[in-house]
Amino acid sequence: MLRSTRGFTLIEMIVVLLVISVLAGLVGPAVFKNVGDANSGAARAQIELLGLALDSYRLDNGNYPTTAQGLSALWEEPTVDPRPRRWRGPYTRKPIPTDPWGRAYVYESPGQQNPRAYDLSTLGRDGASGGEGEDVDVRSWESDR
C-alpha cells in the first residue's frame, strides 16, 4: 500500500524563492536608502540637542567648555582649567552619545567656523571629510541639506 505524501514540489519552491528575490530586489534599495537618511538625521538631531546643552553650560559658566574639556563637560564637571564657575550639570540626560556610526563627535571651542562659540560635527559613515549621502559630514554651522 502506497502512502501519498503531501508537500511542496521543487517547482513550487523555486517559484516562491523567485518571487521573494524579486520583491527583495525592488524593496531592498529603498529600505537601505532610508536607513542612511535616518542615520544622518539622527546625527543632525543629536548635534542640535548637544548644542542646546552647550548653550545651557555657557549660560551657567560664562563660556563654552574648551576643546580640552570636551563634550564630557556636559556630563561631568571638568577638572581641566579653566574650571567652570557654576557647573550645574549634568546638562544632558545621558552620557554623551557617539554618532550613529559609533565614533565620537568632533568638538572644538573656540571653533574655526565659530570663533566666539564652538564647532561640532561628525564625518558621516565613511569617517572621512566630505562625501555624499550617508557619507556626508554633519556640522553644527551648516543648515540642513
Shape: elongated
Number of domains: 1
Strand order of the largest sheet: 1-2-3
Count the beta strands: 3
Mean pLDDT: 85
**CATH T-level topology:** Glycoprotein, Type 4 Pilin
Listing every helix as H and every strand as E from the N terminus to the C terminus, the arrangement reads HEEE
> Which oligomerization state do the chains in this entry correspond to?
single chain
CATH H-level homologous superfamily name: Glycoprotein, Type 4 Pilin
Task: Give the biggest beta sheet.
Answer: 3 strands, antiparallel
List segments where confidence is low: pLDDT < 50 over at least 5 consecutive residues. Answer: none
Structural class: mainly alpha
| Helical content (DSSP H or I, runs of 4+) | 25-40%
Compact description:
The chain has 145 residues and is mostly helical.
Describe this structure in words.
The structure is a single chain. The termini are far apart. This protein is elongated. The chain has one domain: Glycoprotein, Type 4 Pilin (2-Layer Sandwich), CATH 3.30.700. It contains one helix and three strands, in the order αβββ. 36% of the residues lie in helices and 6% in strands. The protein is mainly α and 145 residues long. The mean pLDDT is 85.
Secondary structure topology:
Layout: H1 10-61, E1 106-108, E2 119-122, E3 138-139
Antiparallel strand pairs: 1-2, 2-3
Which properties best describe this structure?
single chain; 145 residues; mainly alpha; Glycoprotein, Type 4 Pilin; three-stranded antiparallel sheet; 3 strands; 36% helix
